[in-house]
Structures are given as structure tokens and as C-alpha cells.
Prior knowledge:
The chain is of the alpha+beta class. The chain contains six helices and ten strands; from the N terminus they run H-H-E-E-E-E-H-E-E-H-H-H-E-E-E-E. It has one domain (18-132, 179-221): Pnp Oxidase, Chain A, CATH 2.30.110.
Amino acid sequence: MTTAMADLKDELRRIPSLKAPLPDMDFSAFPQTPHQAFAIWLQEALEAGVREPHAMTLSTCDENGWPDARVLILKNLDERGWHFAIKAESPKARQIATEPNVALTFYWPALGRQIRLRGPAALLPAEECAADYSERPQGSRASALASQQSAVLSDVTELTRKLAEADAFLIANPDFVAPGWQVYAVAPIVVEFWQGASDRNHKRLRFKLSSDQSEWERVRLWP
Ligand SMILES: Cc1cc2nc3c(=O)[nH]c(=O)nc-3n(C[C@H](O)[C@H](O)[C@H](O)COP(=O)(O)O)c2cc1C
């Protein structure tokens, strides 16, 4: 092992995790649905100054059963679930088309909180996808239009050129909606709220949708 790698191990051991003070969570006073509970925790994350609390990891599986994961932005939360927006030709969209069951994970270090969701991702109606695209800033719309997301970029000048072309096109056609802009909602069947503690006596609450999907069953989990 190189010296730099050995130093890295020591460095990692010195980094604190779940450093006090962290909130002492009382799950008995928590709401009856994970949607309401998420809204409360998101508000508390904002008040605690958590940076980008709407950033979440979307985990998918490809056609060979290989897991994949990346960070996305949470765009909305309603009775249909947790929304995100992606391009139809991207690897993650192709993976969801093959296997719609996904996982979402949030981590908010300042509060020592993690939220995990598992469930199917469903494509929202075309008019909602179009509305989401139209609400994006000009630069984001141009990027979504120009990018062959996750394909190999062999010539960086091609990207610059495509972006400039997309920008000019959208200025001339401000109502244009890029084909393949998709918004999905994840309707979870399981949601877990995890409150970390500096003494490692973490508190965990799992919401599970009942088999007839009529109510959320709540159980505490061992740390
Ligand atoms: C903070 C943050 C927010 C992101 N938000 C999005 C997003 O909302 N939609 C998106 O398609 N990619 C987003 N990305 C980029 C993705 O993580 C990913 O690199 C890209 O979508 C390609 O993923 P894929 O190859 O698995 O399809 C974001 C990345 C970061 C770090």
C-alpha cells in the first residue's frame, strides 16, 4: 500500500460522524403517514440550515440486476409520492422502464437524519412533464435539450456547440418542450425514518403500507 493510501485510512478514522448535538427524536408524536412526517423533517432540515435537503439518492437496478445509484433533486411531494425529473434516454430512465421498483435515500448530516423509501416509480402524465420542463430556467432547458446524458463525450467542442444551438433554438421557440423530459413519482410501500445519536442508540421508525394499501403500519426497529 502506498504511503498516501495509509495516510488516508488514518484520516478517515479521524473524521467524526454523528457528532453531537443531535435532536432526541420522539417518534410517538410522529404523524400517521410518511408523507406528513417527511414534510415535518424537511422543514426542520431547512430550519437547521441543511444544504440542499432536497438532494436524494435514487437507486435503480439494470436489466442484469446490477444496482446503480445517483443523486437527484426532489421536485415535489403529493399523494402520488416523491417526484423527480429525468431524461428518457438516460441510463436511469431505461433502468426504471425495465424495473420500476426503486429506492430513494436522503441524508441530512446537521441533524443526523436519514430517510429511506422503497417502491415503484410511475411516469406522470405528459402535460405535467411538459409543465416541469417549461418551469426550468433557460440554461437548464438548453442543457436538457442538448445533452446525450451519460453517453461518452469524445469531443468537448461538440457539447459547447450543441448547447449554443439549443440555447438559440429555445430563445426562438420559448414554448418548445424537449421530447423525453420525464417526471416520475415514487409511491413507497416502505419508508424508514432514522434519527442518529452520538451514543449510537439510534432511533428508527418504519412505515409499511398494509397489504390492502388502506393504512400505514408503524414499527420501531433495532438500531
Ligand atoms: C445535487 C445533484 C442534483 C442532481 N439533480 C439531478 C436531477 O434532478 N435530474 C437528473 O437527471 N440528474 C441530476 N443530477 C445528475 C445525476 O446525479 C446523474 O449524474 C445524471 O442524471 C446521470 O445519471 P445516469 O447515468 O444514472 O442516468 C444531479 C446531481 C447532483 C450531484
